[in-house]
């Protein structure tokens, strides 16, 4: 009798828990059944499962797909199931004898499919895999890339020979010396660059620098940053291009606002009108600007000698020591000339060493990026080549302006060597065409792109954007030397403002168009691989 009472008490104790457990299980399966009863909901559920547990993206496939024919013919073993994965929800349904057409799953059907769904979480064959990329042949990577580099520098050389002195004022430094010569009516020496009208070079240098800045910003926003974070493989839309455009619109908006504010409140004019240690000479801003751009110390001519007002004159205290002071100055004149000559040679040597190291670092990074881009995709390689072409042309124009024709053209040869060296290093680092063994540790292309992005970001931030501002200051210098009317000054300001914005947008638009073209063909290649395997992907329905 006591045993019966114990059983009765235990039953009363555990009965509510048993009922609650059964009820919860029934509610759980009922909830699942409501959400995945048809094929569309079941397919979406399976994709979300791979996405949440295996970090799959919309453009990914499984690393080891199951062959459905083997499952249907019962031609498999346990190890095959443990290391293979159902690539699509349709494959899972077919393997279990369900037809995806007019699918209507019951709760019992869901219970029978649940083990296969849960096994997906632990199956190593379900890890994500990008669509395979066909490696380019040896010629397309190595020979084609080297031809690209040589052709780039050969075109630079031809342009420099044809354009002559005109290409030497594409930087604000060259234009500063042009304005200085124009203001002083000084004829340059034979080794220096001769300049035609300043206004023409103001337009040429301003437009080319704005275009180069636009190309760099567009390449960074539409090509490098998306591939650094593998954004094109996250989804199948053009969203990342739209976001990059919004970012550039923000940059462009603040650029316009800053320029309008400078014009409205005459910031540049106020800066140039500040007294310079009591010097009232109108040429002081010209000389300061040219010295700021490091263009005066590499020539034998010293612009400070053209006007006596550029330097303070030490007057004798009394009439008695006039002869003594004059004699002392005459005795010190040879010493000053010797010191000036030695200082000039030292500064020139330092300037050359600086440009050798600067060009070496830039060309090595650009060469690595070019080889990485060509091994990734030809169109991305062309975009990077176009960016290197414009930035390199601007950089060598500065060398021609600062060092003269002989040294400037000599740097072109070193630039070719540095670019080829960087290209070879980049090819080895990325393991182009998998020439090494599978145990070789390759550096992913995303890290090479990151390095190139850092270099371009620094160039745009430190060099190009300040250079665009320098052209605005050169405008005010030109106004001062020409004594233009207020109406002409305003017209020239508007002209510079329009040139900056138009060519900046033009460079960005070229990068944007190339990004859209690349995205179109990238979507097409993914569709050709995935859609025959899984026609129910969202981008395969259009």
Structural account:
The protein is built from 17 helices and two strands. The chain is mainly alpha-helical. It has two domains: 94 residues, no CATH class; 361 residues, no CATH class. It has a two-stranded antiparallel sheet. Helix 7 runs antiparallel to helix 13, helix 8 packs antiparallel against helix 12 and helix 13 runs parallel beside helix 15.
Short description:
The chain is mainly alpha-helical.
Topology:
Layout: H1 2-35, H2 39-54, E1 61-62, H3 68-72, H4 78-82, H5 89-95, H6 107-122, E2 128-129, H7 138-163, H8 172-184, H9 198-228, H10 239-265, H11 267-272, H12 284-292, H13 322-376, H14 378-403, H15 405-430, H16 445-482, H17 486-530
Antiparallel strand pairs: 1-2
Question: Which structural traits does this protein have?
Answer:
mainly alpha, zinc ion transmembrane transporter activity, two-stranded antiparallel sheet, 2 domains, single chain, 542 residues, ZIP, monoatomic cation:bicarbonate symporter activity, transmembrane helix, 17 helices, ZIP_Transporter
Largest sheet: 2 strands, antiparallel
Query: What structural category do the secondary elements indicate?
Result: mainly alpha
User: Helical region count?
Assistant: 17
How helical, in percent, are the residues? over 70%
What's the N-to-C terminus distance? 75 Å
Query: Number of folding domains?
Result: 2
Radius of gyration: 35 Å
Series of H and E elements: HHEHHHHEHHHHHHHHHHH
Overall pLDDT: 75
Low-confidence stretches: 188-196, 275-332
Strand order of the largest sheet: 1-2
Estimate the strand proportion: under 5%
What overall geometry do the principal axes of the alpha carbons give? elongated
| Extended strand count | 2
